[in-house]
What we know:
Strand content: under 5%
Number of domains: 1
Shape: globular
Radius of gyration: 16 Å
Mean pLDDT: 79
Oligomer: single chain
Structural class: mainly alpha
Strand order of the largest sheet: 1-2
Number of helices: 6
Amino acid sequence: MTDRQRVILSLVKWAPSTPTSTHLMKWLFLLGQESEVPALVPFYDFVPYLYGPYSFVAGRELDSLRAAGLLATEELRVPSKATAEAAADVYGRYPWYASRSVSRAAPAPSPAKPAVYTEGYEGRSADAFLNTLLQ
């Protein structure tokens, strides 16, 4: 088990209510943005996605925790009002991550001028690379 997976299990264990996967993803995002955890543990990178910030790596780790029997799908649920409040908080403070959300009408990003662009990927996670490409 990785340290990041331990973080996921700790968040679920100490949550005031049982979170949805979307809610948990927002908590992981905020933890990465607003705490010292990323300085201690290699942490997740996020991209703007259908329901706000999303990490494909964290999604795969949630699936592996479920497959190992350490996290039950039915444990991940929370009242929709709490999920809406969490989304509004994250979207308000980090609008870039709401730019592709289906639950929030955000202006479409302006297209880039025609040119040849390059971007290095070495030393970055797939999520960090994709986020750079989207920006």
